[in-house]
Amino acid sequence: MAITEEQRERSRAYKETAPASVCGCGHTSDGARSQHSNSGLLAPGHGACIVPGCSCLKFRWSRFRIPYAEYLGVK
Predict the structure, then answer these.
(1) Environment class of 25 (CB within 10 Å of its CB; exposed 0-12, middle 13-18, buried 19+)
(2) Do 2 and 43 meet the contact criterion of CB atoms below 8 Å apart?
(3) pTM for this one?
(4) What is the mean pLDDT of residues 11-29?
(5) FRET partner for 56 with CA separation of 20 to 30 A, picked from 10, 28, 43, 63?
(6) How many structural domains comprise the chain?
C-alpha cells in the first residue's frame, strides 16, 4: 500500500517525537525514543536492541505501533 505525500510528511513529524514501529523482539524502533540503537546504519533505530537482556542484534519490522497507524489513518 502506497502512502500519500501528506502521510509521508505526517510520518516524519510523528517520528520526531515517538517510535513508529515494533521489532520482532517486541521493542520499539523507527523514531524518537527508539529501543534500538542507530549503530551507524542509514535508518535511525535499526541497529541492535538496547533493552537490557534483549539479544536482538538488528531491527526486524513486525508491525506499526497502534498510535502511529491511527495518527496516519492507515490502521
Answers:
(1) buried
(2) no
(3) 0.82
(4) 94
(5) 10
(6) 1
